[in-house]
Description:
Elements: E1 6-10, E2 13-19, H1 34-53, E3 58-67, E4 76-86, E5 90-99, E6 104-114, H2 143-147, E7 150-153, E8 156-159, H3 174-186, E9 193-201, E10 210-217, E11 220-227, E12 233-243
Antiparallel strand pairs: 1-2, 2-4, 3-6, 3-9, 4-5, 5-6, 7-8, 8-10, 9-12, 10-11, 11-12
Amino acid sequence: xxxxxxxxxxGDEVHxxxxxxxxxxxxxTTSLRTSILATWVDHVCGLATIDVLAPRVPVTLxxxxxxxxxxxADGSVRAAAxxxxxGRTVVVCAVDLSDGAxxxxxxxxxxxxxxxxxxxxxxxxxxxxxxxxVDHRPLTEPFAARAGCRRRAPGxxxxxxxxDGLNAAGTVNGGLIALAVEEAALSLAPGATLTSLALRYLRxxxxxxxxxxxxxxxxxxxxxxxxxxxxxxPVATATTRIQR
Length: 244
């Protein structure tokens, strides 16, 4: 609700739109965080996937956002998601990202699988068609601070498991894992932003905190995320591209 995304069905697509506020900027820049775009991509694709897999709960396998340049500072963003492949247990979606005037900002993609726990199910009536405009609470502090994500050291960021940061399966939301990845990478390049973020989820964060560790060379980063509360088991791997 605090990220302000309004979602609606439009034919075979799920569309989302949101206004950009300064609390959404990457630190030291006037560009919208790529991790917020990733969160929006995850959301619209997840709703499109629910229509295929419900009442089974979808969990994110892969999440990608690639921008043509740094994201804008103001105005609005639109995300249009469509299902590319609908299998019995895996769904793949593509997303077009644009600004409020319809100018392309970039592209995204996400793939989902059915949650392995057979006891987990979506509430009755959940679907993209059932989504209505909600009363958003404004984001009153920077996104990382609101999520409790902090930089522990250069190249290292930590994200706690919090009750309001969970998905339908009760594990840490995939978009928030993107935030931890972004913070780890940007801590090595102050004043920069990400123009590319590709995440591969290995297992859910059940305990936390999630700790992201980044290596960056010539703007290209590799980030590993581990669940510190679960024996430091790897939970995600990511690649990033930094632009100043």
